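Incident review: delayed structure delivery

Summary: a single-chain prediction request sat in the queue longer than the usual turnaround. Root cause was a stuck worker, restarted by the on-call engineer. No data loss occurred. The affected request and its eventual output are reproduced below so the record is complete for anyone auditing the incident later.

Affected input:
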Amino acid sequence: MSRVPLPYSQKILELFRNPKNLGKMEDATVSAVAGNPQCGDMITFYLKINEHDIIEKASFESYGCAANIATSSIVTEKVKGMKLEDAWKITWKSVAEEVGGLPAVKFHCGILAVGALRRAIRAYYKNKKQIPPEWLPKELTFEEKQALEEEELARILSKKMKMAEEGT
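Output delivered after worker restart:
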């Protein structure tokens, strides 16, 4: 069985080869994870946020494909210097456009990147133990729900694998 290469844009390939903001941030204010066990893509986002709710630094760790790395790289570039409210408005579709488009089977990479960002923003306000701002939706967004569903799938898969190893 042969595999046809995915039609990645030059921007995706460039960011895959030379990602921006790759690596763990030791002094992060908050971090969040999103992942998809079906394809193996996992992202951890790190944000350094100042007292004015502005993102000073952003970085990510990724275990995944070219589209996963490229969309994570773009998101971390876009949010630097943004107020959290403005960063929240970034959509997975705008991220996909910014990397020159994503093959349909890779849309989930943009969704995961935005999901990780939104989870980090939500965690920031939760950690501050203050009433969240009015612009932060009370209900989880599509991207956040996707991240949660994928985590649940990962837990189920891990449990099944452990049971198989134990012979139960």
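Verification: The chain has a mean pLDDT of 89.
Action items: add queue-age alerting; document worker restart procedure.
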